[in-house]
């Protein structure tokens, strides 16, 4: 394979797009997708991905938390692999591109190298991470976090969904609790292709985003405990409604978001659960997920402290007890300078319009960055709409990012 013919290689995208369209037919929901992690729909896309990997000549392995790897041998196959991927699970009202572009872009890269007959020096591995979204099992990105050594495997297995199903039990149920020990393997590097999930590239009509860093995010799972009582005779002075505490926290978090909106801060409490949560009876139990994001880690920390105070205030006002069951925190200037430079130089050498951009959403790359040199490549998405069945992008908008992934990954794998 002459370097020049490889240098001039451009993925035309028809095969990539038909793969995207095939994936968009698995777990459909209104105009988008509902492929909550480890659901039957997630099993279906996993089965399809494993089949595609086999068809591309990849050696497939599944680790203990269901991460699926496809390996393409290198000339010096003992070297650490260049790892490429993202996630195929979606939000409950998800789009056809969030995560999917990164996994299927990596698959297309392998198929293209096969067509070109090019064997890279280092092995290349592609990966589908379990539970990136954290929509069914909290927290988000828990399986890439486990791979990076941040979460213990058995703790991950115990994560529990609304219906009482555990993450470990669901892995067994759908046949994706692999034998391969999770983690312990340090890739040479990691590259993740993803839609921006923000408006900048689309608004500026740019082809590629060079992701310099991630917004700092603080998340927490809060539990309130109160007491059931009759909504009729029970005096207001004696009430201990966990649902009221939860509702007060949801409103307080929104107020915090508005207090920092002028500096691009976001604060959300997107999930409130209560029990019994029925007419005629006050709730004794409630849980709230809180999530703050801001570009400056210091400001993000101040917002998180405000949320923490609001938890205590909401509990006191409702006469309940409270506990923060779980916290997660990611983002910041975590990406490897040389890898970011590689993405930037590759976009420039391929003649694509590009700019530096921050990621406001979390990604599996945030955990991979803790164990190996990591960078991300963004493509535009229509108006930044995402986690919404209106998420949209065209092949012309996606293919520059796929080509940057191809050339950056090969440059890294051949060095
Ligand atoms: O929460 C996040 O930003 C990620 O999409 N799960
Ligand atoms: Mn994603
Ligand atoms: Mn997402
Ligand atoms: Mn994400």
Give an overview of the whole structure.
Belongs to the peptidase M20 family. It comes from Chelatococcus reniformis. Its cofactor is Zn(2+). Pfam families: Peptidase_M20. InterPro entries: Amidase_Cbmase, Bact_exopeptidase_dim_dom, Peptidase_M20. This protein is α/β, with parallel strands linked by helices and 415 residues long. It has 2 domains: 294 residues, Zn peptidases (Aminopeptidase), CATH 3.40.630.10; 93 residues, Alpha-Beta Plaits (2-Layer Sandwich), CATH 3.30.70. Helices cover 35% and strands 22% of the residues. It has 13 helices and 13 strands. The strands form 2 sheets. Strands 3, 4, 5, 6, 7, 8, 9, 10, 11, 12 and 13 form an 11-stranded mixed beta sheet that branches. A two-stranded antiparallel ribbon has the order 1-2. The model has no long low-confidence stretch (mean pLDDT 97). It binds (2S)-amino(hydroxy)ethanoic acid and manganese (II) ion (3 copies). One manganese (II) ion binds next to loops.
Tally of domains = 2
Q: Based on the structure, what is the oligomeric state of the protein chains? A: single chain
Here the CATH topology of the largest domain equals: Aminopeptidase
**Any ligands, ions or cofactors bound here, and which?**
(2S)-amino(hydroxy)ethanoic acid, manganese (II) ion
- Give the class-level CATH name of the largest domain: Alpha Beta
What percentage of the residues does DSSP assign to strands (E)?
Answer: 15-25%
Please, how many helices? 13
Which ranges are low-confidence, i.e. pLDDT below 50, for 5 or more consecutive residues?
Answer: none
- Please give the CATH architecture of the largest domain: 3-Layer(aba) Sandwich
Estimate the global geometry from the Cα principal axes.
globular
Average of the residue pLDDT scores: 97
